[in-house]
Amino acid sequence: MDHATLNIKPRILYHVAKAAWEGTLFDRREEICTMVSEEFKDKHTRRQVANQIRIAMGLNPHNDDQILNDYDEEALMGMGNESIIITNPDACQSCPAEERNCEKACPLQAITRDDFGKVSINQEKCLGEGHCIQACSFGALAEKSQFVPLINLLKQHSHPVYASIAPAFAGQFGAEVTPGKLRSALLKMGFTDVLETALYADLITMKEAFEFDQHVKTDQDFMFTSCCCPVWIKLIENKFPDLMEHISPSVSPMIASARVIKQFEPDAKVVFIGPCIAKKSEALLPDLKGAIDYVLTFQELATIFEAINIHPADQEDHEKAIASWGGRVYAYTGGVSAAVATTLEKLIPHKVQKLVSLKVDGIPDCQKLLEQIRNGQFTANFIEGMACKGGCVGGPGRLLPPEEGREHVKKYGAIALANTPVENPQVYAILARLGHESGMPSLSGKSPMAELLSRKLVQD
């Protein structure tokens, strides 16, 4: 049997999503396990199939051919605190030593194996970006899925449920799938409405412009940005804690979207949809938990669409585009820097000539740059880091190659009605609803608006 066909994850996700949507998952779980085992004609994978179903249901693998135990149903009600990227060790047994691509894909050597070849993850080293999952052709590494409780939530109609969709979505679901068609598909799934995360990136862009003005006063001052990349922030926290004081205190646009929506509707649920696996871990961080309720990758959403027979290309085009060019270009490397520079020019014209930006992507290059900064070898004062090559469009949950995704985002950004958040009336509409009907509120320091858009990074 071709070992590559042992990666049963796509089939598992499809069957689990379909059964969850039909309300038959608990009744049919063992049937699905048997069906997939027979489909792949390998008796040895019975436990692997059972564990892949558990992972798709948001549970940890266990040593049993049966899928659920007595304590699992409660765990399925929402996101836990456990690690998002987990191992299914049974699937490693057929992996040839020379083809252990997961180890090669991990730049921090967080993946190791025991004497029997079973994989394990050092969670202290792991940054959670998830490219190891892409590299594994067996499905031995996987991220927990959260769509089972999400599907239940959508079908219960007990809360307004908003989809906050990352700007990298452009083109991901097919060239013919316009933003308006994708919105209609999500509404058909049961979402109350669809938010452009890029609109909340507009708010964060303005905040970071003010933060830059406040913190960068001399040639020795500098500021780390890319609050949108949790892996970049975690890398600094874990390996360069002496540089943490230079991190922008802004939350990510994902967190900002949920916090703002819940200011308007406290009982709302917010689901982030994007290309980033690490966003699942970000949503559980102690100072951020409670904002985002669930996270889906583009790959997971595409599987759900297939399973429940919704075809985005066939939907009506009901666009509700409200973000600026600056918010949309957060999706690729250099976009955050460009957005802040153009916004700074509008907000604080005398300061823009003092912004000297530097962008870097990929964890190895991020580490190299941080070492240089620690040693005083830098000339920039506004430093943007992205863990994935190409930026968010290179995230492991994407559907398109990074270069193709970037081109779609560039086109989507180009048709925005506003160039910067300063010129975007939708930004002022949000501020007015939050009680700031005249003038620009303070977005740095300790003001209520600044606090809403801030996080508290813990330093030793």
TrEMBL record:
Entry EC number(s): 1.12.7.2
Keywords: Oxidoreductase
InterPro entries: 4Fe4S_Fe-S-bd (IPR017896), Cytosolic_Fe-S_CAF (IPR050340), Fe_hydrogenase (IPR009016), Fe_hydrogenase_lsu_C (IPR004108), LdpA_Fe-S-bd (IPR057431)
Pfam family, one: Fe_hyd_lg_C
Residue span, 4Fe-4S ferredoxin-type domain: 82-116, 117-146
PANTHER family listed in its UniProt record: NITRATE, FORMATE, IRON DEHYDROGENASE
Name by which UniProt lists this protein: Ferredoxin hydrogenase
Organism: Pelosinus fermentans JBW45
Higher taxonomy: Bacteria, Bacillati, Bacillota, Negativicutes, Selenomonadales
